[in-house]
Amino acid sequence: MKKYQMYIGGKWEDPASGEWFETLNPYTAEPWALIPRGNAEDAARAVQAAHRAMHVGPWPKLNATQRGALMRKLGDLIAANAERLAEIEVKDNGKLISEMRGQLNYIPQWYYYFGGLADKIQGSVIPIDKPNMFTYTKHEPMGVVVGIIPWNSPLMLVAWKLAPALAAGNTLVLKPSEFTSASLLEMMSLVEEAGFPPGVINVVTGLGNEVGPALVEHPQVAKVAFTGSDATGQKIYEGAARGLKRVSLELGGKSPNIVFDDANLDNAVNGAIAGIFAAVGQACIAGSRMLVQESVHDAFVEKLLKAASTIKMGDPMRDDTQVGPVANLPQFDKVLAYMEIARKDGAHLALGGDRARRPECGKGLFVEPTVFTGVRNNMRIAQEEVFGPILSVIPFRDEEDAIEIGNDILFGLAAGVWTQNMQRAHVMADRLKAGMVWVNTYRMVSYMAPFGGYKRSGLGRENGIEAINEYMQPKTVWMSSGDEPYPFVLR
């Protein structure tokens, strides 16, 4: 098995503990690589390296145009190595090669976009109401940023944090999930090749509870950016608050995917499958609550079950596979547990409901695509994020009922609306409490479009021009051209 090292201060380093742990291939259910088991000492070394790079050496001397050029070079290198990196991610988290190849070929756009944005961050001159004053604003980097990355799409979610943070002039310490660390460690060789100064980008691997708090609470860290569950996000928020650090959190979802009686049902079925069975439901934007208008409920469910029953499972490295394994053993156990919870709460199992025992799934961590009907919105299966291929079908009467059910949730990340009535589409988009609403489509993202949620789905936004504001702080400068008047009053 390949034995990886961490990347700290521009050097490949063994963990201070002298320990490594195995990372599992979810398709074979066998280990394939050794990941360094970092600890608080490694976290401190990485933060100190990032802090030094922020204040001394080449990085603070680069102008914004030069930073952008480095980022675009990194984008080129990722594009040139996309196939290799995609294969590593498939081996590490079981995602389909077709999806990961698409992601890796798309990821360079984040480095191109934010690299181009780096030298277009402008302040403003304020026509101030005070005499003899020239007043202007400028935007400066925050300092050391900690990025904590989940296991479902590691390199894409690295880009969502790394690209805007670098464009703003920050340095970073990245902590990948212990289940999927390999692809980011492989990418660091490309960071070296691109010519980033030592310490600008660092990677510490290890178990979350052994590394995470040490990074989040380190006094030299200015900002924490996290993607993951709402429960872990809350702990990170609490830890960061003790140091009054800036925080952005992209957390969970329990998104409604709403089908009205005038929708194109075939398109809506495709949208339902994309929303919950693509990526094995392991997406924060998963459309896990399928709200269907009563008048078309039975017809829609019939079409959905017919389509879902033909899904091809198996080796994620095959281009024709449609659903691969669950990414890791704890998540596999969690998904199966929620199937039993749904049954006990009275939901009707219409499809799936167990681990997959198809010959093509072998010993892997596979779960059958599962559909529950007769679901009430107060059931746990409708309220709690499963992060797996389980769809809850919930009937509704009319627009008001759909809005009430759709918003009756602690989360507010995304929503889908299927209708041919554009007036209704705009009303639904306005009234659904979600950071993103898709109309007659589902599961679309772009480096140009803000991504984030309401309520327990998080704080702040990733992607789009708004994202760079999460990694900068404004400064106001006052310049006097007159004599200083009486000093004992606020002017």
Commentary on this structure:
The protein has 2 domains: 2-251 and 457-476, Aldehyde Dehydrogenase, Chain A, domain 1, CATH 3.40.605; 256-439, Aldehyde Dehydrogenase, Chain A, domain 2 (3-Layer(aba) Sandwich). It has helices spanning 40-55, 64-80, 82-93, 97-106, 108-117, 154-167, 182-194, 208-216, 230-241, 265-276, 297-308, 329-344, 380-383, 399-407, 422-431, 464-469; strands at residues 2-3, 6-8, 11-13, 20-25, 30-36, 125-126, 133-141, 144-148, 171-175, 201-203, 221-227, 246-250, 256-259, 289-293, 348-351, 370-373, 390-396, 411-412, 414-418, 436-439, 454-455, 458-459, 472-480. The mean pLDDT is 97. It is globular and about 80 Å long. Helix 2 (64-80) crosses helix 7 (182-194), helix 3 packs across helix 4 and helix 5 (108-117) runs parallel beside helix 6 (154-167). Strand 11, helix 9 and strand 12 (246-250) form a beta-alpha-beta unit. It is of the alpha/beta class and 491 residues long. The chain is built from 16 helices and 23 strands. Keywords: Oxidation, Oxidoreductase, Potassium.
